[in-house]
Amino acid sequence: MPRNRIKPLGTRNYGNYKPEILDECLEAIRSGELTQRAAETRYGIPRSTIKNKLKGRHMNTVGRARTFSDEEELAFEKHLITLSDYGFPVVETDFRYAVKCYLDKKGVKIDRFQNNLPGYEWTKSFLKRHEKLTSRLSSNIKKVRAEVGAKDIENYMENLKEVIENVPATHIWNYDETNLSDDPGNKKGLFSPPM
Length: 195
Prior knowledge:
The protein contains eight helices and three strands; from the N terminus they run ααααβααβααβ. It is mostly helical. Strands 1-3-2 form a three-stranded antiparallel sheet.
């Protein structure tokens, strides 16, 4: 199903209100502050919905049951926020693979995920459910913070000379920066919203 489904003309609005607004509406009716008709006008919630909620009908969530429990999703959210606070934001693809590893280690097979890998749409839905997370472009650090002077390089070389002094040449591996990106501004990471 596409993420932004276009409703056909003439269909009714369905659930175009937040749960907090519905709770506020019901509380105003129960306290006698508003009638059902006045609440319908003020909050934009259909009267039939208000009546059903007051009688305790149709209280279940709409749609398929979620794959993970609330505790699991909150743990994912907490880890993503912690990583972004430490300066290592996770891109959506890496998050999907982390969830796959979690499921594999748990020994759980989810049929709706291909090879236990959540899809792109699942990630978007997860972000919609967890408003503390946003997906935005990474930003490079300022040049002032990244500047390294000649003194710093000299200190590094002196320390390196001491560290590898007794290490045979066969135990030293050459490493280049082939897989290191010097332009993180082109990747979207998962962050907690800026304060």
